[in-house]
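Entry 14. Ran structure prediction on the chain below.
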Amino acid sequence: MRIAIVNDLPMAVEVLRKTLALRPQHQIAWVASNGEQAVQNSIRDTPDLILMDLIMPTMDGVQATRQIMTRCPCAVVVVTVSVNANASKVFEAMGAGALDAVDTPTFSNGDFIKGGASLLAKIDMMQRLLGTAGGEDSVVSSKVKAELGSTTPLVVIGASAGGPAALATVLSSLPKDFPAAIAIVQHVDEQFAPSLSRWLAEQSAIPVVETREGDLLVPGRAFMAVKDDHLILRDSGRLGYTEHPKDVYYRPSVDVFFDSVVQNWRGEAVGVLLTGMGRDGAKGLRRLRDNGFHTIAQDQATSAVYGMPKAAALLDAAVEILPLDQIGPAFYRAIRKRCFK
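Output, structure tokens:
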């Protein structure tokens, strides 16, 4: 891949150069020392991937990511000194369209392989994602939904690039007495998924909690996937995690989770697919619709990255395609109409 580096610290640039040199197949497209230069360079020469710092003079990484995604979209991974220490900025960048985040490599005794392993793993994942033409099929089979029971109504939400800000908008629109449970799969690294969960809780009138193995879905609470394993709904009706399928690049996968809902949920549910790169979740949303669930996808105009919702639209997977600010009220109405007639 052709990879660009955006960082105002010469030492950090050198570390990133040496890390990339461990993979001869990667080429450095260009280096920029601030966000403004990055935007102009991207317009002139759009790379496959940008390693974007957050705190820089002239224009920071959040604003640079926002402008790049608007003017010359490409994959962006935030590389900062400490992801956890800069969590709010990281989530802003992801809301603007960044796909992931990782700490800047630090090396000791010249051990570049160990120090750069996390970054190289992210780059490998990005290469696989950018190289896939249509995502992956989940190995979780779908089946016809069983007769409605008396279970709590459920809203399932999938999101990727641009998702944190989109999720904040959706959750903030809901009342504190929201009558359904919510389960969220956001493409996010396990190391800062808990921080995202806490940040979303600050934007929401309902609690947003980290999903633990065996959690029982209860109304008025949002459960967020916080592991690199796939979130699933087990046949017991409780949430859990699984490493299978292992060959799915998106971890956690929206498709895998949506399929498990089709297979095991016995009550009413609404499926929602928000902004994101790629096609994860589109086939799962279609299976939800085919099995009688109400489905919603975000529209192009309000999506930071119109990839996943577009794929859903092409599959006719969404009953409704809506602007972001209308999605929360729409699934609230759908839940009330279907469950509280």
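Residues 145 and 186 are 25 Å apart (CA to CA). Will compare against last week's run tomorrow.
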